[in-house]
Amino acid sequence: MDTIEVKRGKVFLKEGEYGSDAYFLNSGRMDVLKILNGNEVKIGELLAGSIFGEICLIDKQTRTSTVLAVENCVIHKINPTNIETIIKKNPKIALAIIRTLSSRFRSTLKLIDSKKLKTR
Asked: What pTM was estimated for this model as a whole?
């Protein structure tokens, strides 16, 4: 896995850009931001041990949010080529990705519920 150092204040991933890699935050802290009604809103925080960018690893589509380093960070890149090898060596990685996706999906549903969106 490639190791990337990201300085505090740097945007690491940008909402709407295409991607195919996921990342493991080895150290540091990052904010997850989303454009809502034209404003950038903090929707989450990544701490050391977090996996992020996993949706693009799976579907190779655009990034769903922006990730900003709020501290200096050390990140490990997980690309589609090496994910299979990584999972074979350590199946807990696959479980961690699945848990991350599930947790973020639940958070999204709670956000939708809290907004009491109107149905047609």
From this structure: 0.79
